[in-house]
Each structure stands twice: as structure tokens, then as C-alpha cells.
Design goal:
homotetramer, 424 residues, manganese (chains A, B, C, D), isomerase activity (chains A, B, C, D), L-rhamnose_isomerase (chains A, B, C, D), metal ion binding (chains A, B, C, D), metal-binding (chains A, B, C, D)
Chain lengths: 424, 424, 424, 424
């Protein structure tokens, strides 16, 4: 292990005085503060196994070195993140990139690092070397039943791997769609996709969920067969109670009001999971909170209020995952920034006085409603987030400690400067 | 009447030779040609009563004169359009702008011009002078039950007017939404709106439909409570079999694939009506086909294929209406251009060889699928559209005849240069 | 005067202890803190005379009562804002809505309230009752020289009014453009507009600036003749050293990187002024900072760095103005929120350690560069902003005091519930 | 050669009667028709060497087989296209993907197929295996002078290759920019880029042009250092008379009015070249005319009018190139469709009666202006385009002949099913 608890303790020791000072203003409101800290400690964000290496675009990729070369090394990397922030206690695998050779051993390795296995992800957007049928023209939507069957079988195999690892959900993201007007009969593509999903749904263990992820465009540039929350909800309604919609922040048309979508899906009992990232133009997959932190906060406001209204458990009743790419940053540093941004938004949302907000709304007092939200957003909650980490055994300043310990350099030393992880 | 059948006959006479020549290439394929002409003749697009005057923006309005000053004059204007193109045989009224003093007389006047009454439209986006409650913070969504009841009652009154005139559907477009984060609880706004719609739905005659129109933004600039097809479909699903979604081409986020939405709504049996216009940025309400004629054609491709797949009657099973604004054009000329653009797109869609297209799709032959669509789109179908008009008793060149007869000048003479119609 | 200094003192007195406590963490870094407070005190944002009433859209307007009925009352309203926040010490007039009958008296009234006159604004996007030529098809771009001359003359008259009031700049916002393909020859429209601007430029006093404001769309929906910063810069380059570009935050295409535009215009020495507001879809004219506060901060980062690089004075070398609309909020409350949001963003930008940021950039340390910006943004600078207000004689909590003193109710009492201000 | 002139002749023979019939309506207006046909025959669109293989996205790539494995084979493929349509008589090379081992032989091979060498393209958006410095953080903008120098040297080397081949222009497309707020000082990035471009400019032969291509986003997702036409024009202005802006249709923000940009750049004498493709969401690189054919036509309207106004030669005074990707179509078929779409738009633009259009504009007759444009656009000009091909020795139906001769199957036979071309 590249980081031991002594190193963390030492790091914290050196920063403790300043932290206490920053936390001081909060100590007057113990009840509120403690409730938030507890929720922060319980809240875990899964790390996708494909986000541990440098990402790229169709124009190029500039790897940074020391990337994990195997599933074991990916688990180690997530373990490292979790040791630093105590909030990354789950890993989300991608099949076929991460097929465990020995599931029991893999589970054990993860457990030793405090990690569980979140949703498993299938891949029918690429052709694998040994694959008889091609997904060039889609997978679950394909006009050829043999291609659809191959994609169905693959998803069922992914479920099987997930069962062995203790996962409880399958995320189906389809790149299926079309690049040109005329290419698809939209209705028939929907219906074929629905039938394929039914076959996958039938293979779900009874305590599993399936997440039907939507995306507005890319890699298909004219239509996507699961293109928006409306389509995804239609599939989920038709499939049954184990099917849910999954929201990825980067999968919308320009200017979409994502927080309203979140609210409506929760209202319908059909929000299943969340993929965090940030973007300015499309599915840019940037660090969470790096472009529109207020939007992130507004989404958390809806999540907190909407989950509370349904009596849902924040920590366990939705699947939370980062789904970002790291083209110009160290992947691990990027993930540390992302998790912190999520925690900040969550803490700010927890600060909102929902009763006062409801009063302002009932009085049509738009000015006060805005003041209430912005008061929470403008509050510096970083001391609370740090305190939650501290209590959970993590580092007061994870990013700083990552650099103090020269962890990337150590990884390069171990794995080499040319090590490249599987992923996009 | 400003235009009599002799004038039309004379106009046609002068142009007949050239028309015949242009029609000649079509005569080789009589069956196909005749089928298209028949469908064109049957197809009528309703004209909204509020689109007969000059439109404007919040920045200003530049009226052009001769606008209709009363419901009777509005009916006359639509009658004039219909006399010219024989494809505008319906009028869609807006209450309270067009409350008929004597419904029987109004019906008679319309019938004399060959017009029926299409969907009636309610208005809860503006306050009327004598109205006790204000819609400043919404109508059907309002936190105050008294405001909701006022809006419900208004809609029921609109239905009553519609019944008297022979309408068979109510279009509910809500400007309800919010301008700022925090202003609304989205879920509760949805639920209040749904309950209000239920009350309106309960007042529908059994042979009526209600159209729930969605819009992405404007006049609310943060959220709209019926903001996209997904939301609208949810309302329509919950309300029951008489409730449908209405698609207005200008009510989407940038880059939306509207034709796919049309296809999915038809698949679900929930597409009720259509508002035609064109736009580049938002709800610009420009002349149909003036910005994206290919998109219009692609939408008609979905309409034709999707309606045929459900055995629907093109002419009568959906509500077809123009909903545009005319800020820099003569409103009647603009409407003539819009109707012609719709007919062209419809004729081109009818030209598509659906069997060959299905074959290309089944072979994943994307190149051929595109060729089939573009072959239809690149074909000059104006002779067919003109022939349909000619056979129905209209003018070969409606816009030209409108100018030849100096109709606007006549209208100004009758109504004055300062006459301004009700509307936006 | 509806608010006197005793009331402000009393308000502050009651809040002083809590304020001191919140300010405490800052007192350790006196030099930095004091420099920021001083800059905040010097920084004034002009209030446009048309933003003192309730705004609306083409769909409707819901006035709130007590709106100013005259230029004098508008000045009083700005005086009230300035008394509250000591940061609204300028007013920007709009001609012909605000023609002063007696310029000297108007100046005196403003001076008594501590107000100066910022840029004057012309209006060639609406027809006035007595105007011989119509702007329906544009003003400075018009194909008819008589219309252009009328618009030129109007701008020169606006300058004359401005001179009398002590303004030093003219803002030219043109709605000129086209609604349909074909309507304009873009090149000739540019050239006519340029020639018209030359005539206005020639009438500028030597110590004046002219701001050429750009806008992507609305009220024209196909093209705008000053449509983006590239066009505006072309005009400003050609006109000469007194011509500048003005940036309005809401006047861009979706996803535009406005902060980069700001940086490049400063680089070229051609940024003249700024119109603050916020938006999600178009020129929504929402409260500053209500939708994208991080973007606002990033813009201030560029302003601070870019102005410092040119040795510009933050307070006086650019024109700062709010240009928002208030459809669902009390206009004065909305303006208080907007000014505060601007001050917060400015203070956060001043917090940025530019030297460290430069180091991070030189090392391509993207992670640290982001940390530096987000550290500033996540810091709660509200105590500094409040302190600046306190020292300048304003209220610690302007919005709260506005409500405590029931100022809107007083205004309604004085001016009536139906008083409606000129504006959009 | 996979296609000889006998095969073309035979193909034409079989289709001649039908073609003559379709051409018949045009023969009445000989002067106009002949002028258009002549212009079509003179007009050549360059094919980029990287567009001859299957393209992909970061998610995957599905090659189709028979792709060119070398520069020679790429030239052969373009020769094949040119033999079919007689309008693809130029090839645009990309260095380092297409470095000619023997420039004289390469030139000869091209000349034998009737091809010339269009603009040469540099690549500083990817790292090559043997390259000492990395472009991860930019090339011409890089903070490190050594990286900038490497990129400058590369561009100068590209010029050298171009000189040997007879090219007369260099296209510089930079992916330089930033992914996160804070990463770049925009002003300094601009200035470093400008200085680098100066060094390249200094190496231009006197009869060469350099094209500075702009792009709004991707692969950088926060800022692009040559991000819009305004930036590109600034560089071109500063560099001097040999520097021009290059417009790629897919490189804009949503809803941009590209035709207006074209008009203004022509006005400034700074439009240098054009990259054709089509898109719905971003730089989708779809077949030209497949999504927005009316926009393409409107752009050609500006090109024709604007070039004529400056006395420019349509065929030779701008660089015309396709820059598309072919993810789901056969690349050669896709290119045939693209060239045809360009020719159709060009022919339609040539049909416009510019004098009548000018009259309509001068009369503010927006309705007629639209009618004039749409009359041209709705006209089926395919017979003219076919006639131009026929006279030039090409095929009446290039795509049909490509399939009749089973050219792809022949290419697969020669080059293998797994042959993959260099490119994106």
C-alpha cells in the first residue's frame, strides 16, 4: 500500500489546528452540524474502473504514466482514493475490460480496502476482437436478431459477473442510434431495444435493479435510441419495477434543466442512479463541479428534498457514481477533486432550511426563495467536509497528501511510465 | 368578399399553360401522382385567430394595417386564405380574445366560407382586466387554490364555447413555471398542475380531446412545468385516453431531434396535434419552412409513416395548426407561405418509397436510406401542390393573386391603416 | 426620502455584533482584506432607468405597483438603492423614455443622492408616436437613407442630453437585423450601419466613448447586424479610438465562453463596458448570479487580471451596468440582489493569488490552477462585502432593511398600486 | 485502375435517354443553363487524405475494409472519385500521415489521375512516436518555448512538403486550448500563439496563403485558443496579407449564423477556405447536406454573391475541401454524396436572380426575398449537375456506378478486409 494510516495521521496532525479554527464557527449549531457530518460520512461515491487512466478524444490521448494495468491495480487505485477521502468506498466495473479471473479473490482484495462493488456496466458500443457480430449499426436495437442476441447474452454475462462480486445493479448505456436521417425507423428501433431489454430484465436477480441510461448524442450524431429522460422513463415503465432511469449530467441538450428532471424522476419512483461529471458543450466528462457548481448544488437540492419526501436513504437508495474523463489531469487527482465537489454540493444542500423555503414558495416570495438557496451555496462548508473525512479516518486535505507522498511518482515507479489503463 | 371565384378562375386561366407544362413530367406515374394529389386536397391546416395580425416582441411591434378588428373579420381573413389555397379550411380560436357573441351566427359565417372550428385555446398566461386572481406566479400550478380554480373554470368555459362552435378539442398551453432556482418545488408544481388538469379533463365532452402542449422556456426562464415531451406524456398518461401531447416545432431545446419525438408519441398513441412554425434560436415563430425545410420534411416522413402504421387518417386524426408570428411580413402572405411549405413537405414525404426505405434499413444501407429521403426532398413537387389547389378551386399561385388583387390595400381601405388585431 | 441615515444606523447597530463575528476570520490578513474592502467601496454599478419597473415578455407583464412615474422618481429609486448599498452610485438613462425637462435640476437631484450619470442609451428599436420614419426594417442599417438619418439624429440628440447631464459615453444597442434568409444583404447592412455609426462617432465630444453592443438574436430571429463580439470589434476598429465593444452577458449563443471574449477584448484595448444579468436560455435578463454564479466569478477573474495588466482602474475605466428585467420580483429587491452578486464575484476574484496561478499555469498544473480559482470561489466573502457597505454608510443587510422599512408599501402609498414605469 | 472510361461510357449510355428527358425543361433557358453548367464543371472540391478511411469516435471505430494503406492508394481513391464525378480533382494532404517518399513520383501519380494538391495540413494535436516534446498542453500556445518551436518547425516542414507537391496553402488547425477554468491565461495564450504563427508566416513562400482555422470546442472543452471567427480574423489581421480565416461548417456554437460569418469575412477580404461537412450537435463531421441542406444553400448564396462582388473566381480564389468523417458509411460513397450535395447547393445558388433579390431587399419586401431564395432551393437542379458531370467525362450517376462496378469489393480484394487508413 502506497499510503498507510500513519502517514494520514501525520498529515492530519500538522493541519489540525487550522482545521479546528475553521470549524469553530460551526460549533454553535451542533445539532445541525452533526447531522450533516453524519450524512457526509455515510455518503459514498463509486469510482468507475475506466476512470483510473488518462482519457482522450478521437483526436488523441496523452497518457500520464503509472496507470493501472489490471483489475487488481484498479482496485488498488480506488482503495487509495478511499483511504484519502473515505468517500470512495465502491467501484463500478466495466465488462469486458474488467473481467475478474477469480471473483472471490477480487472481492477479498476490495473488501480489504473497504470497497464494495457498485453497478456493473456492459459494453455494446465497441467490437471486441473475438466477437462474431459487429455493433457498427447498434446492439439491442439492431435489425439482425443475432446481433441483438449477442448483446443480450453479453448483458446477462455481465450480471453473472456482478452477482459473483456482490453488485446489485446493471447499468445499460447504449450508444445505439443513427448518424443520418433515414437510417433508422425510430419506432421499430425503440421496440427492438425494448424487447432486448426485456430479455435482460428477465435475467435480473430479484434484488437487482437495471439502470437505463439516456444520452442525447455521441457517438451517434443524428438520433440516440435512448436519447432523453422521456425515452428512458418509457422503457423503465414498460419493463417493470426493477427498471430505473439513470441520469448522467453530461448527456443532455444545451440548457436542459437537469434538476427538474431529477425531481420528476424521483416523483415517479424511477430515478435509479446518477453519473457525475461536468461539461460546457456536450459529454465533456470534466471534473465534477469544475464548470457549473451551482447547477450541481441545485441538483443536490432536488435529490435531498425528493429523496426525503419518499423516505429514501441518501446513501443507499440511489446509485452514485463519477463518470468523468481525465485528459489533462492526473486521474486520481481529478477524482479527488470530483468527490470533494460532490460532498460540498451535498453539504450545502443539507444546509437548506426546507421549511423556510416551503414558506417562501407558498408566499410566492421568489426573492427569499433565492436568498435561501444562495445563502446555503455561498456558505463555505469545506470545514464540515474535512471534519467528516477526519472522523472517518481520511485525510484533511487528500489532494495535498497525495502530492506530499508523491504517490503518482511511486505508481510510475511500480507500473512504469508507459502503463496505460483500459478505458476510453 | 374581397376575392371572388371569377378572379381566381381568371388568374388560373393565365397560368394554366405553364402549369400543365410543369405538371407534365408527373403524368407518367398517374397512380402515384393521383394518390398524392388526393391526399393534398384532403389535408387542411387550421389558422389560429391570433395569427392574423402583426406580431411583436417585448422590444416592439410594427403593425402593418388592415388587421381584423373582430372575430367576424378574423373569420373573413381565414376565409380569404382558404379561398386562395383551399387548404386553410379551419380556424382555431383563442379565448378570451375571440368570444363569439352569437355562436350560431359565427358558425354560419364560417360555414359560408367553408371553414370549421379546430381546437379552442385557453389563455392563463395573461391577466384580463376583470379577473380577480393574477397569473403572475402561474395558473394551474399556482400555490393558491383560488387561482387554480379560476384557471380551471376558464378552461371549462373555453370548452363550452368550443362546443357551441363545433370544436372537438381543447389546447392547453401553460406558461406556468419559474424564473429562478428555488421559486418552485417542481414535484408539487407538477402535482398541482395535474390535479387542475384532471378537473378540466372531467369537463371534456366524451368525443373531445385535450392537448397538453409543452414548451422548454419562455415566458418562464428557469423552468416550465410542462417543459418537454416527457413531461407532457406523463400528464397525458395519467389523465386518460382523451389526453394527448401537442408538439409545437419551436418549443424545444437547441438541436432537439423533433422527428424522433413525433415517432415515439405516435408509437404510444399519444400524439394529438401539431403547431407549425420555424425557428433558429427559440420560439421564434417564423414562417414554416423558412429556416429548416429539411427538418420539416423529416417530421412529415415520421408523421406519414407513423400514422399509416396505426391506420390513422392523415387529414383528420391529428390536429394541424400553424402557430407563427409575423413581425416583418404581411400576416396573410406569411400564412400563405407557411401553408405552401407544409404542403410541399407533406407531398415530398408522400413520395418516399417506404418499402425500399425499409429494405435499405434492414440491410443497414445508410447511404441508400439517405438517397431515398433526399431523392424525395430534392424533387420539385410544387406542380403537384398547385394541381391540388387548382382542382379544389383555389389559385395556382395564391401569393401572386393576393398581390394582383391588392388585397391588403383593400383591407386597409375597409379597416383602416391603424387597425390592430388581438394577439401577441 | 423613504429611508434616512438613522434607520440605516439602527439597522446596522442591531446586526453589528454578528457581523463582527463573521468578519473575524479575515482580520488575520489585514493587508489583503483592507485592499479588497477599499476596492469594493470604490466600485459602483450603474442602474438603468428602465429597470426600475416590472418587466415582461411578449406574453404578458404583471406589474407590482409603486413603480416610478417620472425621471425624478426613477432617480429617487436609484438613490434609495445607493443609500442601502452605497454601490449603485450611477444611473444610466434611456432616451426617449427619460428626457430631462430641466437638465440642471435633474443633475442636482441626482447629485443630492450621490448619483452620477453613466452611459446614455439610444432607442431605435421602437417607433415613437411622433416619428416620421419607421424602424420596422432596421435603423442604422436601413436601406432608406431617411430612416438612417433619423436614427443618426436621434443618437446625436441622445449625446446632447448626455452632455448636459455629465455622461461620458453613449451605448448603441441596435436591434437591426433580419428575421428571414434573403431579407438582408449582410455585407451591405454592415456597411450602411458602419457609415451611420461614423456619423454618430463624428458627433462625440472628445472625452466621450461610444459602446457598440452586440447581441446574437432577438428581436430579430435570423441575423443581427451587430451579432457577436467579432462584428462589434470590427465596427470599433474601423470607427476609431473612442469606439469600444460592450458585453452584455445575455447576448450570446448557447455555451459561449464569455470570459475568454472579455480577455481578448481587454487585450485589444477595446472592451468598453459591461451589462450584467444572468440567463439560462437566451437574453433572459434574470438577476445577476442567479443561474451561473461561477461564470460570473470567472468573468471577474478576467476583468481583474486583464485590467491590472493594462494598468486600468477597476472603478472608472470600464462602464459597469446592470441590464436585467424583473418579471416576478420586486425590481428594487432584484437590483439589490444583483449588486450584491456582482460584489461577491468581484471580491472573490480579488482573492485569487495571481502569482501562484501564473506559476501553476507555467507548470501546466491544471489541478492546482483549478484549486486556486475554486478556493477563492468557495470562500464566503459576504462579510467583506458587508464591511465595505458599512464603512461607506450603507446597510449591513440592504434587502432586509428594505423589507423592515416596508419601502415598497410606502412607494405604493405614494405612487399608487397601478403606477407603471416606462421600459420593456 | 478499377474504373475505366468504357465502363463510364456504358453506364452513361444506359441512362442517357432518361437524363435528356430530365434536362429538357432547362433547355428553354440556354444562356442561364449553360453558364451554370460551365461553372459547375470548373468547380473542384478537394478531398482530404484522411477522409478515405472509416472514422470513429472515442467510443469506437468500425472499419469497413479495403481502406488505402499508403499515400499512393489514397491518391488512387481520390482519382477514382474524380473519375466518377469529375469534381474531386484535388487532394489535401495531412502531415505526418502522408509524407511523400518521392515527391516527384507522387505528383506524377496524381497528375495522371487529373489531381492537383490542395492545402497541406499540419498536425500538432497528437504526439508522434519519435517526438521529443508533447502537445498535451498545446502546441503553438504552449508555455514552453521548446514545444512551440517544435510545432513551428513541424509547420515549416509541412510547407516544404507542400512546395514539392505544388500546394499553395497551409491550413493550421490548432486543438490548442484548455479543459478547465484557470488552466490558461487567455491573453497570453493568444499572444504566444500569434508569435508562433508569425514564425510560420515568415516561412511562407510569397505565393502561398496560410489558413487559420477556428473551432468552438473539442478536443478542448473549456476554451479554444482559435475559438471563433472573431479570434481567427484577429490573427489573420495581425499576421498580414497572406493570412486568412478558414471556415469549417461544424466548428460553431449551436444556432450560429454561418452564412453571415461568410459574408463578413468576404467583405474583409479574409475568407481563405472552406471545410464542408454537416452536423446536428457539434463537430459531427457528417455527410455534407445530410442534416441542413438549406443552410448549405444559404452559405453558397453568400459565397456566390460575395465573391462576385469582389470579382473573385469561384473555382480558384477560395480553398474548397470536404472535411467529414464516415463512421457508418463507405467513405467513398459518403464522399460522392458530399460532393453532389455541394454541387446541388452551388447550382441552386447560381440560379438566384440577384437583381430581383436586390430589388426586393430595397423595397423591404421580405416575402418576395424569401420566395426568390426558396424558388431556387426548391428547384430540382440535379439534371444540371448530371449534365456537367457528363460533359466533363464523369458518370451520370456516380454512386450507382460505384456499386454497379462493385468497387469496394474490388478494393477489399486488393487491399484486404482489415486494411485501415491513417486518420481519425
Amino acid at each position: 500500500m502506497l499510503l498507510n494510516s500513519d502517514q494520514i495521521a501525520q498529515h492530519n496532525e500538522a493541519r489540525l489546528a487550522k482545521h479546528k479554527q475553521q470549524l469553530a464557527p460551526w460549533t454553535g449549531e451542533v445539532d445541525k452540524t452533526e447531522a450533516i457530518i453524519e450524512k457526509l460520512m455515510a455518503y459514498q461515491v463509486a469510482i468507475p474502473s475506466w476512470a483510473l487512466g488518462t482519457g482522450g478524444t478521437r483526436f488523441g490521448r496523452f497518457p500520464g504514466g503509472g496507470e493501472p494495468r489490471s483489475l487488481d491495480e484498479k482496485i488498488d487505485d480506488v482503495g487509495l482514493l478511499h483511504a484519502l477521502n473515505r468517500s470512495s468506498g465502491a467501484i463500478s466495473l466495466h465488462i469486458p475490460w474488467d473481467i475478474p479471473a477469480d471473483a472471490a479473490a477480487t472481492r477479498e482484495r476490495a473488501a480489504a480496502l473497504g470497497l464494495t462493488f457498485d453497478a456493473v456496466n456492459s459494453n455494446t458500443f465497441q467490437d471486441q476482437a473475438d466477437q462474431p457480430e459487429s455493433y457498427k449499426f447498434g446492439s439491442l436495437q439492431h435489425v439482425d436478431a443475432a446481433v441483438r442476441q449477442q448483446a443480450i447474452d453479453h448483458n446477462i454475462e455481465v450480471i453473472r459477473h456482478g452477482v459473483e462480486l456482490g453488485s446489485k445493479s446493471l447499468t445499460v448505456w447504449l450508444s445505439d442510434g443513427s448518424c443520418f436521417p433515414g437510417q433508422l425507423n425510430f419506432r421499430q428501433a425503440f421496440q427492438r431495444t425494448y424487447e432486448s431489454l426485456q430479455a435482460i430484465y428477465a435475467a435480473l436477480p430479484p434484488d437487482w435493479k437495471v439502470f437505463v441510461e439516456y444520452k442525447a448524442f455521441e457517438p451517434n450524431f443524428y438520433s440516440m435510441t435512448v436519447g432523453d429522460w422521456g425515452s428512458s422513463l418509457l422503457y423503465a415503465q414498460k419493463l417493470g419495477p426493477q427498471a430505473y432511469t439513470l441520469v448522467d449530467l453530461g448527456h443532455h441538450l444545451p440548457n436542459a434543466n437537469i434538476e427538474q428532471i431529477v425531481s420528476l424522476l424521483l416523483m415517479e419512483g424511477k430515478l435509479g442512479g446518477f453519473h457525475f461529471n461536468d461539461s460546457k458543450y456536450g459529454d465533456d466528462d470534466l471534473t465534477v463541479g469544475s464548470i457549473r457548481p451551482y447547477q450541481l448544488f441545485l441538483i443536490f437540492n432536488e435529490l435531498v428534498e425528493g429523496m426525503d419526501a419518499r423516505g429514501m436513504n441518501h446513501a443507499s437508495d440511489l446509485g452514485w457514481m463519477i463518470d468523468a474523463s481525465h485528459n489533462v489531469k492526473d486521474p486520481l487527482e481529478d477524482l479527488l477533486q470530483s468527490v470533494e465537489a460532490i460532498q460540498i454540493a451535498y453539504a450545502q444542500a443539507l444546509l437548506i432550511d426546507q421549511a423556510r423555503l416551503a414558506d417562501a414558495r407558498n408566499a410566492n416570495d421568489v426573492v427569499t426563495a433565492q436568498e435561501i438557496l444562495q445563502d446555503a451555496f455561498r456558505t463555505d462548508v469545506r470545514p464540515l467536509v474535512a471534519e467528516a473525512r477526519l472522523r472517518a479516518g481520511g485525510a484533511l486535505a487528500p489532494l495535498a497528501l497525495f502530492r506530499e507522498q508523491a504517490i503518482r511518482q511511486q505508481l510510475i515507479g511500480q507500473r512504469g511510465a508507459k502503463a496505460i489503463a483500459t478505458g476510453l
